[in-house]
Structures are given as structure tokens and as C-alpha cells.
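Protein 1 of 2
SEQ + STRUCT:
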Amino acid sequence: MKKLLFTTITLSTFIFANINAIVSILPEKTFVQAIGGDKVDVTLMVLPGNSPHTYEPKPSQMRAVAKAQLYFAIGVEFEKVWLPKFKDLNPNMKVVDLSQGIEKLPMISRAHHDDAHTHNENTDPHIWTAPKNVVRIAHNICDALVKADASNSAFYKKNLERFLAHVARTDATIKERLSGAQHKSFMVFHPSWGYFAKAYGLTQIPVEVEGKAPKPRELVKLIQKARKEKVSAIFTQPEFSDASAKIIANELHIPVKKVSPLAPNWSQNLIDIASAIAGVR
């Protein structure tokens, strides 16, 4: 009788246990929770306020990796260093590439000491800054969850449908905000918004390129370019120093606006950026 009871409890626990999933950055957590709902437990790796370029997991996060079934990878630098270590720790954990099916853009690089830019071989990992890409990411998440938990496939697909409607509304709002924009250029400290710019016919003017702040001569040319393009604000990230951006902002008498592509509320984040570019208050 005791053995039967133990078997029943164990089986019940197995059937109703949630999927343990790991994500690298906050926007991913938002996406996975939207589709996985209360059937997926999500552990975030790069905690708020930290950079995915330099983050090192805490012991509690490593313990979460050890029992995870899925790791949702998105291509940030953190993963290049740590994913192989995570796989060594948990060989049974399936790594899901959320960028599958998305055309990557090259990162901006500075060819010379002036403001001319070329492209290098490194691709821009910030794919989630364009709603069209979020649609693909959402499908990839749903496919992975359905494979891992087929008995709840209808639940995940219903959540996907609801989330895709939210993405469509976000895209429509951004287009509406930008419809009145007189200028199509915006200045950023770190070039994280290439997919957003391409999606809406905009141009991002980066202050920092390849992790390097501009030299005095380059700074002068950036100020001249920003003035010519009538840039109304500079977007900086909390994760990076914004000393150079402040110099430009002071020279042009424009505000520095802190906005991070790692913010959890990706939808409102993109809408706010569009509003700032268009000068909408």
C-alpha cells in the first residue's frame, strides 16, 4: 500500500511539474512567461543593471542550470562564454536558438578615426528590438515548449496567439507615433537599436563604436552630424558610461534619455523610443 501511494505521488509530481527554463536577458523572460504562463518556471541569468558583455552567474543560478530542461539562447555575448560551461554542467539541457529564422544585421564598426562607418563580421545580437523579429522569437519559444510538453500544446498555442496580437498592436502604435516624425535619425550611445531602425526606416547614429568612446576629433564630427540631422535626444543605456553622450547633449542643448534594450517591458520601451524620436510628449 505504501509503495503504491509513493508511486502515485511520484507520478503525479512528474506529470504536473513545470518546465524549468533558463533565459539570458530580461526581454526573453517576458516572452517566455507570456507563452509559457504558469507552466514554465523561468530563471534569468543577466540580472537587471548588469551588462551581458561581462556578467558572471551566481551559485544559485548555476544550481538552476543544473536542473533546467531548456535554455533559451538569443545570441548575446554572455552566452559565448557560459553556454559551453552550462552544457558541461547539464548535458541533458536542450539549448533553443531563438534567433533561428531571423536575418542578422552586422554590428557597426568604425573604419577610420572619422565618422565613416563600415560593417564587420560580428552580428548585432539585439534582435528583439524589432517587433517582426519578436514574432519569430515567439514562434520559436512556442515550438520548443510544445516539444517539451506536448500535453499542454493547446495552452502554449493559445498564449502565442494572444501574445502575437500584443506584438501587432505594439508595431501599429510605433508606426503611428513615427508617422509625424520630421527627422529619421536618432543618436544612441551604444549601437543597440539597428533592428528597430531598419524596421521603421530610421538611422541610428552611435556615439560609442566597438566598445570605444569617440576621440576628441570624432566627437566634434558627431556633434556636427547630430546638429545637421536635427537630433532631438541622445539615448544611453544604464549599463554603460554616458560621459561622451553628455558632452554632445550639452553642446546641442538636448536631453540625455536613459533607455535599455534589456528592459523587461520591451513593448512600452520601443513605443517610448518612437515617441521621443518623433518629439511626441
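Protein 2 of 2
SEQ + STRUCT:
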Amino acid sequence: MIPYGKHSIDQADIDAVVDVLENHFLTQGSKIPAFEKAIADTVKARFCTVVNSGTSALHVACLAAGVAAGDMVWTSPNSFVASANCALYCGASIDFIDIDPSTRNISVEALQVKLNTAKHQNALPKAIVVVHFAGVSCDMQSIRALTEPFGITLIEDAAHALGGQYLGEPVANCQYSDMAILSFHPVKAITSAEGGAITTNNPELAHQLQLFSKHGITRSALYTPQEHANEGWYYEQQVLGYNYRLSDLHAALGMSQLAKLPEFIEARAAQAAFYQQQLADLPVVLPTVPDYAESAWHLYVIELQKHSRKAVYNALKQRNIGVNVHYIPIHIHPHYQQLGFRPGQFPHAEHYYDVALTLPLFPSMSKQEQRYVITSLREVLI
């Protein structure tokens, strides 16, 4: 079976993990701050906090933003459920902004309309989780211009977009946002087996992110009473935090993987370009990348124009091609319907879901495997 996504592990990655097992602390040692600095340097952000998953990163970002009961958070319906669940974890309410059919990201026009309506109803959100779907950045400059007058916290869900660019700069540098989250799940640009991170340029947010991800505890002399400055054992819990810490084992793997990020993204871009060339004459809508962005190509999603998605999906699966669907719109999941959402509320996201099909794309996919996917798709569609 050719999977839709797959991690690439080499001997250097294995050696990095074995080195920790043999010579270092397994949990909270020197690899954690080194990995945090490497990520911050890579995306050109001032601060980075690593955690045990992208979902934890979203939760911690919402906590640092002060999201709580009585608040509202907005996000895209075209995402994994974690992009919305993070608000619910904080006791807040959630709502959605429909997507732009061409980018499959949050529609700037829909956002403007929703903000104007919310302003008149005194129902503006505390935060917006802006999802960079499939590796393509949202138009963050435009989104920031719309939200800044209202003091809305912007959190970039860049789980798909590490290695991508916006206006010539790395995604997650937080130039137009307050925080950005990353994911190191095995199908993402790099992997730490499981893991995630939050970047920011705000030192107070950086402190809050560290607190909430580590039990709410600090040992820092900057945040503890002066009378305990010479007491090496002293620590104190300042907020109700969570054990979302990443281990040194995971960080060592992540560090080794991060060194290969440019080659991983180059391989993904080459595969995407080959798909674009070879599928151009088929009855499908191919993904597009706006001029302001360079995609990280986490996913390669086509939209079927004439054929049943279920029939195409099953036919390709029978040929041992691990196609997938990203995503079932969050608002139509049963849990969200229990919260009052209904099909028909976000029509662009729903139409996209009805016809979307994710093709295999990952750095180690061979040209032979990709040609087989293309040939099989042709046989099914023509």
C-alpha cells in the first residue's frame, strides 16, 4: 500500500535517539532547549515552546491568550477537529468562518463580513485560530489588518505549513500573529514521533506558554520571590498547568529531522509539480498556491468534477493506493451538531469536502510509485 503520507527516518535520526538513551536525561535535559532554539531560528521567531503534540500546542496557545468560559473563538471548518477543540478545552464557545474555494483557507471576505456582524452584536471573538491548510499560508497580513482594531488574538495553526513561506518569510515567524503552532506528527514535514511547538515574539506570552505546558510551575528567578534566589531546589506553581512536556528522546529526533527540512520540502515540491503537470488534462481541480505563499505541500488534494468520490476512493484503494480525505468539516461532526451546528452553514467548506481526495505525497515516495498513482487515477477517471 502506498500511503498518503509517511515519515522518513535515517541512521542519523536513529543515532540521535540512541545517544540520548545512552548518554543523556530521557525527559527534561539539554535537547529540549536546543530543539526550541533550532525551531525559533528556523522560522525566525523570538521564542519557541515545544510540547507533546500539535493538539497540546493549540490548547496551550489558547490558555496563554486568556481564552476562558464566556469567550468565543473562531476557526476554519476545513481542518482537523483539534483546531476547534482547543477552544472547548478552555470552556469557550466556537464558531467558524467559511473557506475561500480557491485556497481552501479562511476566506478574508467572509471574515470581514463576520467581524462586522459580530461588532454590531457585541459578539467579537477573543481569538481566531487561522489554519494554513495543506501547507499554504493564509493571507495573514490581510487578516491581521481586519482583526487588529478589535484586539483579537491571532493563533496560526501552522501544523501543515512548517517549511512554507508567506511574503518571502518562513511561516510561523509570527510577524502578523500572536502565536503559531506546529505539529511533528509522523506525516508532517518533520517528525519527533509525536510532538508540537508554539512560536511567538511576545516575551510574556512565551512565559505563559512555558507555564501552561509544564504544570504551571516555574523555577525562574525572574518570576519567583527574591528571597528564594539562592535556593536551588525552589519552584512554585503559579497557574493550573498541564503535563504537556516533550521528552529529550522526542526532541533529539526532532532536531535531527529539522536539519533535513529543506530537502524534505524540496522533495514534496517536486512531487507536487509532477502531479500538476501530469494531471492537468483530467476532470479534476488541482490545488493552487497564491502569489503571496510558497506551499510546504503537506497534502496534495484534488477535487473531482464528474466522478463519485466514493467510487474513485474505493477503486484506488483496491489498487493499493492509500488515498484519504482531508477533512470532514468540523461543524458536521456529531459532537458539534450537539452544540447547535448544522450542515449548510458553511457551504464552501461542505462542497469542497464532497469532492476532495488526497493523493499520496511524501519525501521518500519514488518516481515509480508516483507514476503508478497517476496511471491508476487516469484509468479510474477516463
